[in-house]
Amino acid sequence: MCSNVEDGTLVSMSRAEDEPLYLDEICKKCNESKVAVKLKFKEAQCENCFLAYVRHKFRASLGSTKIVGRGATILIVYDGRRKSSVLLDMLRFAFFQDAYKKLHFEPHVLYIDDSALFNLTDEQRNSRLQRIDVLLERFGFKSYGTSIADTSHRVLSYKEYMKSSVQNDQVNDLRAKLGPTVSHTSSNDYIQNIRTNIIRNVASHLNANFAFTSEIESDLAKIFLTNITLGRGGSVCQDIAFCDTRGNVPIIRPIRNLDIVEVEHYIKFNKIDCLDDEDVQLDDLFEKSLQNVTKSFVDELQSNFPSTISTIFRTGDKISGITVDKNCIVDEGNCTFCWSGIPSQKSETIQALEYSRFVSENVSANRSNFVRERSVDESKLCYGCKNIFKDVSMT
Ligand SMILES: [Zn+2]
Ligand SMILES: [Zn+2]
């Protein structure tokens, strides 16, 4: 058995390649079925006990916070990939259960078409939209579609969206903003924020009380580390929280306590069809970004030291608690792009960074003029977003 010493404890590795060693055992929980999975720090389990455990974990995180009330309208963000498929399937399971266990809510699903970012032909885009349509059918929820390039935030039923085309000027506008001189880090940060704003706006348009997104433990570890490096430490509390209250509609992350091994087994045992891994992804587009470097680092930890991921995530959660108390005092209002609070006092690190930027911008006069021409009011942006708009072309 492959094992690894972490935190002074001998930990069984729960990666797929280790599983066959447990397969002859009988599940100790039900004493009936054969073991199908061994998760770290847990007894080996059969498929049914595993699914009951993961679903319970999901229900418990939703239930214990009591944030989502009975009858709430929720917008579930779906991208066709494994994590959002798990979220949607868990909600479907809870929704179609008997009256006692049923989750009472009004579900809407949103697909954000990001084909405008990639050089997809109409045929490739249509083929992807059709594939998503087939995948969505399985869940039976009311679904909607919108484009990442659509600044008017038009939202159509998914079937209508499939027939519509993204307007050329909107695609060109988005591509121009992320031109060749814009760093991959700023482009990535810009797109992530645009995406979040679309989620909030569509949720608001559909009168949803909450939006549900599908980040898991390792995603939040990546977001936590990345946003610290991007100077977004002051708002990292919201970035990894169960409920992100920025903007007009709160965003809930109901599966943030799941890890990638649980996601993979949930997909496997339920035989859920998802978009192929080789399908184009945002991470490939902004290869040279800080976000991608952090992602590679966390992915490597996931392979070699999986317990470290939850240590980073839990540490982030604890630090966030402290940050909320001391630094998230919002005296300067909220950032008009990411809706984070703008603290009245800048940290010494940010002051030093701003000074350094000021000096380098004055060295390059052209660059400085370019910054001044912008239409974005910098005083209403947080430090992280100021950095995006210094880079992304807004003229
Ligand atoms: Zn069992
Ligand atoms: Zn901001």
What percentage of amino acids are in beta strands?
Answer: 5-15%
Tally the beta strands. 11
State the shape: globular
User: What is the makeup of the main sheet?
Assistant: 7 strands, mixed
* CATH level-1 class of the largest domain: Alpha Beta
Low-confidence stretches: 1-18, 324-329, 364-373
Architecture of the largest domain, CATH level 2?
3-Layer(aba) Sandwich
Ligands in the model, by name, code or SMILES, are:
zinc ion
- Average of pLDDT: 83
CATH-assigned fold name of the largest domain: Rossmann fold
What is the H-and-E element order? EEHEHEHEEHHHEHHEEHHHHEEHHH
CATH superfamily of the largest domain: HUPs
Secondary-structure content class:
alpha/beta
What is the percent of helical residues? 40-55%
Number of domains: 3
Q: Provide the gyration radius in Å.
A: 22 Å
For the termini, the CA-CA separation is 59 Å
